[in-house]
Amino acid sequence: MAVTDEAILKIKNMIIDGHLRPGDRLPPEKELSESLGLSRSSLREAVKALEIIRVLDVRRGDGTFVTSLEPGLLLEAMSFVVDLHEDASVLELFAVRRILEPAAAAMATVRATDADAERLRAMVTAVSAEASLDDLVEHDVAFHHGIAELAGNGYLTSLLDSLSGGTMRARVWRGLTQENVVERTLAEHAAIVGALASGDAELARARAAVHIAGVEDWLRRAARG
């Protein structure tokens, strides 16, 4: 395990054990590095990584604080950043989604009624631009399940639901790190619904492909970073 990843895991354990809570200030660098058995340089790298994913808030001249995010979201993000650098399987899951989700969207377009399209549109408009991360992830899962269900193939729906579960932490981390993620997600979902409502299966396929590929591209760049 990389030294930085080890440092992240040790800070994560402090949150699990209750030694650090949302809003708490971290001990001084020298004190924390000694108590965790880490070099100050590896601790510094871990703090930098956790600042990037908004788990820690570094306030110059004031100290480093755990953000106000719920503990569950903090732990999701911290686990994911370590896993992503050690295991590329989440990228493979998105590659499979990039193949299947556009096909599901095209199949759904052929079968969808006006009422189906309106139901999907209502799912999108029900989420505000100020939605919480929890609400966004819940909407994203439900929206993609709705598309898959309309495709009319139970095996495909089950497979996509399974893939969706496997990429949940990626959704959480994207929500923590990417700017304007709520607006971007809703706009792309609305574009898919628009194509579906018009009955244009190939356009729905293309818009779904762009949507999934965009997330995959962000994830690939994040893994390199």
Automatic annotation (TrEMBL):
<protein>
    <submittedName>
        <fullName>FadR family transcriptional regulator</fullName>
    </submittedName>
</protein>
<dbReference type="InterPro" id="IPR036388">
    <property type="entry name" value="WH-like_DNA-bd_sf"/>
</dbReference>
<keyword id="KW-0805">Transcription regulation</keyword>
<dbReference type="InterPro" id="IPR008920">
    <property type="entry name" value="TF_FadR/GntR_C"/>
</dbReference>
<dbReference type="InterPro" id="IPR000524">
    <property type="entry name" value="Tscrpt_reg_HTH_GntR"/>
</dbReference>
<keyword id="KW-0804">Transcription</keyword>
<dbReference type="GO" id="GO:0003700">
    <property type="term" value="F:DNA-binding transcription factor activity"/>
</dbReference>
<dbReference type="Pfam" id="PF00392">
    <property type="entry name" value="GntR"/>
</dbReference>
<feature type="domain" description="HTH gntR-type">
    <location>
        <begin position="1"/>
        <end position="69"/>
    </location>
</feature>
<dbReference type="Pfam" id="PF07729">
    <property type="entry name" value="FCD"/>
</dbReference>
<keyword id="KW-0238">DNA-binding</keyword>
<dbReference type="InterPro" id="IPR036390">
    <property type="entry name" value="WH_DNA-bd_sf"/>
</dbReference>
<dbReference type="InterPro" id="IPR011711">
    <property type="entry name" value="GntR_C"/>
</dbReference>
<dbReference type="GO" id="GO:0003677">
    <property type="term" value="F:DNA binding"/>
</dbReference>
